[in-house]
Amino acid sequence: MIKLVTLTEWAAVSSAVAGVSATIFILLQLRHMEKHKNLEISMKLFEWAENDRLHRAFRWIEEEFQFEDYEKYKAQEDTSYDVRDYPFEVTAFFEQVGFMVEKKFVDFDVIIDRLGPYIVSNWKKLAPWILSSRKEKGDETFGQHFEKLYGETIEHMKRH
Fold first, then answer.
1. What is this structure's pTM?
2. Which of 64, 76, 94, 141 has its CB 3.0 to 4.6 Å from that of 146, i.e. a possible disulfide?
3. What is the pLDDT of residues 42-95, one digit of tens each?
4. Which domain holds residue 121?
């Protein structure tokens, strides 16, 4: 025996299918928006890294920065604007990148692809200064996102 579907049953099934379809569509759109937001934030970070002042700071850290101890650094800091500001600028940049990665505002793989070697080289150069600055200022949080980003970058590089 064939049972006929009533108009009410047909409407209920149609509504359920429409609801599921709408949910899937919304989820796909949200995923697309998330990727777009991630890309936008990543591009802003990369744009910041290319600004002239920060670019000079990166180059100075790589070519000229030498840290032996905090006392020598303090003596140099008073004589040179670069010695005073560039380490802070580079640390602040990687601190921001590390924070964005930790909070999942940017995709870690995108950051690694673009900045991985720079994260490693800059941490190696600045680590003694950052660790001494923490002790000197009594601020154990100084550079913590940069340090965590460095650790994650090293782990990622070992796996790949």
1. 0.73
2. 94
3. 667 767 667 788 889 999 999 989 898 888 888 887 787 777 899 999 999 999
4. 35-159
What gap in Å lies between CA 149 and CA 106, rounded to an integer?
12
Considering its fold, how many domains does the chain have in total? Answer: 1
Question: What's the rounded Cα separation, in Å, for the pair 108 and 91?
Answer: 18
Cα separation of 88 and 84, whole Å? 8
Helices 81-102 and 70-77: angle between axes, nearest 10 degrees: 120
Per-residue pLDDT reduced to its tens digit, 88-110: 999 999 999 999 899 888 889 98
Number of H helices and E strands in the chain, helices first, is 6, 0
Tokens coding 141 = 């949080």
The answer to the question of residue 142 being in a domain is yes
